[in-house]
Specification:
This protein is an alpha+beta fold. It contains 4 helices and 4 strands, in the order H-H-E-E-H-E-E-H.
Length: 148
């Protein structure tokens, strides 16, 4: 134990003799620890933490791509959505969403806010109720029932 105390006193004396080196060293270590903590927080929030939905391991994103135009993420059309939903034999539910901007009005000036428009199965697939609005207003109408 005496050896460690002796080494600690020696290190402290050396650091006090060169204050600029000590400051640069402490700042470098602090920046390294801060950067490490920030990167871990981002990785933890984006990659490690499960999604805030029931059964996040059962959620799948289906995307469409075109090799001819070299586009990796093409939006689905209404026809694609209905085809995928009707021909689906793998998924419990199949939902579609699209980003949107809507105007919110009130007593003050109207304001444009981001919104998401979803099909009827999207929120039940996520296991969440709508926070506001109607659960029956959907982006696409239900396909017409075939007449018998």
């Amino acid at each position: 134990m005496g050896s460690y105390a002796h080494q600690l006193r020696y290190v402290l004396r050396t650091l006090l003799r060169s204050p600029m080196f000590t400051i640069v060293t402490v700042v470098t270590i602090a920046v390294g620890i801060g950067a490490n903590a920030a990167i871990f927080a981002i990785v933890n929030g984006v990659l490690l933490k499960p999604l805030p939905y029931p059964g996040p391991d059962r959620l799948v994103a289906v995307r469409e791509a075109t090799a001819v135009l070299a586009i990796k993420d093409v939006g689905l059309s209404a026809a694609d959505y209905f085809t995928f939903r009707e021909e689906n034999r793998t998924f419990e539910r199949f939902g579609l969403w699209t980003s949107d901007r809507v105007s919110v009005t009130g007593l003050d000036a109207p304001e444009q806010v981001p919104a998401i428009t979803v099909t009827v199965d999207t929120l039940p697939a996520l296991g969440i109720p709508p926070a506001a609005g109607s659960a029956t207003r959907t982006m696409l109408p239900e396909p017409p029932e075939p007449s018998s």
